[in-house]
Design goal:
The chain is α+β, with helices and mostly antiparallel strands. It has helices at 3-13, 47-56, 60-71; strands spanning 19-22, 29-33, 44-46. The chain has a domain at 3-36 and 44-74.
Amino acid sequence: MALIQKVNRRLEKLGRPERLVYNPAGGGYYYFIEGDSSRWYSSSIHVSNLDRAYAENGGVDGVLSEMVALSRCGDGGAATEEGIEPSSLGLNW
């Protein structure tokens, strides 16, 4: 099963409205769409970064960790405490 399908299946099971998509014309980026993603400083992540998060950081949990990090970037990309709560994604931080 493709990375996108695995991530989106987990998000759906968790009741999250966000979805991961890939746009071949998007310059090598995955994008989180729907839900609160339009309010994040950035909802895109480069293919190599997401693939590395998947391979090195626990599969789908690694991708969801990247999602949390994206949701917690405020103006100018500075980290904030707002955004997705890791426990809502089944992550134990």
